[in-house]
Design a protein that fits this description.
Helix content: over 70%
Largest sheet: none
Radius of gyration: 17 Å
Number of helices: 5
């Protein structure tokens, strides 16, 4: 399980690194918007069905979850920036130490966010449902990866 989580974390960080390097122009953003919206709609449906959210739970859950994702994306950008520092050809020891420190701090912040929002989810959902949120996030990533590969098995 730790290997899967580590692999998924690495995959997410690589994706953010690529996105950080390739600042798409406005036209590319417009072209990607329908895909992003489709993925978001699938995510809402996936979470709603896997968590078996009621209408009332969904109304309270999604704003909190979206804030969690917003903060998580910020942390992933910080980690990606730290990893990008290793690409410098003339990396000095101080630069290396700073990059390692920044990367470690980003990973620590990611853990802190899981704890913080785990408590928030528990205020909205039953303990059983709240405990499934992070697992369902990983399940959704796997669902998307399988879909990209053309493997349409349902989870």
């Amino acid at each position: 399980m730790k290997r899967i989580f580590s692999a998924l974390t690495l995959l997410v960080m690589v994706c953010f690194t690529v996105l950080a390097q390739n600042k798409p122009n406005n036209q590319n953003n417009q072209q990607r918007k329908p895909y992003y919206e489709k993925i978001q709609a699938e995510k809402v449906a996936f979470f709603t069905s896997h968590l078996n959210l009621t209408v009332e739970e969904a109304q309270k859950f999604w704003p909190v979850y979206n804030e969690y994702i917003k903060e998580l994306e910020s942390v992933h950008r910080q980690a990606a920036n730290a990893l990008n520092a290793f690409k410098k050809n003339d990396l000095k020891e101080a630069d290396y130490d700073k990059a390692i420190s920044d990367y470690g701090k980003a990973l620590s912040k990611e853990g802190d966010l899981a704890i913080k929002y785990g408590k928030e989810f528990k205020k909205i959902l039953s303990v059983e449902k709240a405990s499934k949120v992070l697992n369902i996030e990983n399940d959704f990533r796997m669902y998307l990866l399988n879909k990209l590969r053309g493997d349409n098995r349902q989870h």
